[in-house]
């Protein structure tokens, strides 16, 4: 199996390469590091354009080779530079050609350091890819360890689209711990003076009990067909999405797993609206899995 690590020669960011190397230590899969150079389409046969294309291809190759040379030597990572009509199209072409089972990309350079932010390339991939897409937070550093814990975000359409079984299978395959978290946003500030805090607490408590019961039932159903590791079930609550995500603990070696939304076709990734809100505040790498 192969992991495709997308490198942006323009931003010179090594975050996706760092995450891909960490995933390779976890899975034992091969990594291919790739840069995509956009070429005019349709080709015009202009000698000046052709010369410029050769120049930027050489620059991309040199930047990619330097970035890979700076990685730990325990993971062998071959490189390739591919020309295509667009970066997302080129990555999809490379994924098919290399029979990739996971695409790793970086966050937008306009995002916050240490957080996940979608750019034009990742935005398209998380709505069209047919394999899981992992996104490294901006500035994600080298990590000599493995992915030690998967946190599956339970809620909404991800439940019916097979997120929990997919996360359980990954945890077993990767020998990682599994945690299932359900996030809820309770904007108590908007209703201050209208709803008693004790009533709000009661609503959250009842919702928490029902959510934990639903998750437990799904896990028991899954255990009839496969081995499921010990699972921690937690609830993240806050007055907004950032507070809800930060209300649960995060550690080095964590990865957040999001399911695809209701609009996803079978075996395709599609980031839903609630998942997109969670993703923007995640302090760890995020992986979106296709609808089962």
From TrEMBL:
Top-level taxon in the UniProt lineage: Bacteria
Domain UspA: 2-136, 167-290
A Pfam family matched in the record: Usp
CDD domains listed in its UniProt record: USP-like
Family: Belongs to the universal stress protein A family.
Matching PANTHER family: STRESS RESPONSE PROTEIN NHAX (PTHR46268), UNIVERSAL STRESS PROTEIN UP12 (PTHR46268:SF6)
Name assigned to this protein: UspA domain-containing protein
Organism whose genome encodes this protein: Mycolicibacterium brisbanense
Taxonomic lineage: Bacteria, Bacillati, Actinomycetota, Actinomycetes, Mycobacteriales
């Amino acid at each position: 199996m192969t992991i495709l690590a997308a490198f942006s020669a323009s931003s010179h960011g090594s975050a996706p390469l760092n995450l891909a190397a960490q995933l390779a230590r976890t899975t034992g899969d091969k990594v291919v590091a790739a840069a995509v150079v956009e070429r005019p389409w349709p080709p015009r046969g202009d000698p000046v354009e052709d010369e410029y294309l050769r120049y930027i291809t050489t620059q991309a190759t040199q930047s990619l080779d330097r970035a890979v040379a700076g990685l730990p030597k325990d993971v062998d990572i071959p490189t390739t530079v591919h020309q295509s009509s667009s970066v997302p199209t080129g990555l999809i072409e490379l994924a098919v050609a290399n029979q990739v089972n996971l695409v790793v990309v970086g966050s937008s350079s306009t995002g916050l350091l240490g957080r996940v932010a979608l750019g034009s390339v990742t935005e398209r991939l998380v709505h069209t890819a047919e394999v899981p897409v992992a996104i490294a937070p901006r500035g994600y550093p080298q990590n000599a360890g493995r992915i030690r814990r998967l946190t599956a975000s339970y809620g909404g359409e991800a439940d019916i689209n097979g997120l929990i079984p997919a996360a359980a299978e990954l945890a077993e395959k990767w020998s990682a711990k599994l945690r299932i978290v359900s996030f809820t946003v309770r904007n108590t500030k908007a209703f201050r003076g209208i709803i008693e805090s004790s009533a709000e607490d009661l609503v959250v408590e009842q919702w928490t009990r029902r959510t934990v019961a639903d998750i437990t039932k799904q896990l028991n159903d899954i255990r009839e067909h496969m081995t499921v590791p010990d699972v921690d079930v937690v609830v993240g609550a806050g007055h907004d999405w950032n507070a809800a995500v930060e209300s649960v603990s995060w550690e080095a070696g964590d990865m957040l797993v999001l399911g695809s939304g209701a609009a996803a076709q079978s075996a395709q990734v599609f980031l839903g609206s609630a998942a997109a809100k969670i993703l923007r505040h995640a302090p760890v790498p995020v992986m979106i899995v296709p609808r089962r």
